[in-house]
Here is the input.
Amino acid sequence: MPFTRGLNLILVARRKELLDKLADELATSHGITATALACDLANRQSLGALFDDVDATLAKHNEHLTVLVNNAGTGFWAPFADQDLAGLQRDIDLNVTALTTLSHGFINRARAHGQRSYLMNVASLAGILPTPQYATYSGTKGYVRFFTEILDYELRDSPISVTAACPGGVLTPFLDQAGQTVKKQTGIMTAPEVAKLCVDAMYAGKVVYVPGLLNKVAVYTNLLPRRLRGWLLERSMMVSVEARPDASR
Ligand SMILES: NC(=O)c1ccc[n+]([C@@H]2O[C@H](COP(=O)([O-])OP(=O)(O)OC[C@H]3O[C@@H](n4cnc5c(N)ncnc54)[C@H](OP(=O)(O)O)[C@@H]3O)[C@@H](O)[C@H]2O)c1
Here is the structure.
């Protein structure tokens, strides 16, 4: 992963064992310090305590927080009314509440230390195109995009740059947890290429960034009448994925 650019890292996710392993690998391969913090970001209590651990880690290494990537996000692909409400609520807690809380903590710390800083919020192409069967997911990602665009305006005279990354389909475990099986990789990008493009866009100061030519072209379907756009988006999604028969959450 050529994305660390010499920065020391704090990695946050729920599965501590995997996170520790990744932190060790990154520290060894890049000669950096990488700290793993286990936290369920969809849980308000653990989310509220996260910055205590982050601040303690920074103080230990005498460092400031200059980059935040809000990457964790979930969604489930099925008609809205057929979905379990508790699962949808967890998506909102993670995609909206956690991202908002962490952005707030980050921006205030960056304002206090005054160094050049970068915030990347990972949205989705579904945050630009209202995507059928992803009503809540698409809605939360639309929030992320609007939120980030507004932060860009409010922070225009500050050294803090903000980016909403809006990938289309990416080959990751996300698809499986969203209840999808890949049947054809058409239009689906790989995680390393998307990550590299998005990190480059963040450092280049792009505010809304869509990786991949096909995804960039897809944005123009917003010019179509709503129902036609919905029909087209549903059909194009079905070219590459299908619902996993046993999918539930
Ligand atoms: N894959 C796609 O097709 C696609 C397309 C557009 C946008 N995106 C967006 O890209 C971002 C990354 O997705 P991905 O494809 O890399 O998904 P992924 O492979 O499922 O990875 C999600 C990561 O988030 C962590 N995570 C999930 N729930 C969490 C929670 N409650 N608290 C803390 N960490 C949590 C996971 O680790 P743990 O499970 O250990 O917590 C994992 O490291 C998401 O925001 C997603 O919406 C993905």
Q: What stands out?
A: The CA atoms of residues 20 and 36 lie 6 Å apart. Strands lie at 9-13, 34-38, 67-70, 117-122, 160-165, 170-171, 180-182, 189-190, 208-209, 241-243. The domain at 69-243 is CATH 3.40.50.720 (Rossmann fold). The pocket of NAP is lined by residues 13-15, 18, 39-42, 71-74, 94, 122, 124, 167, 169-170, 172-175, 177 (CB under 6 Å).
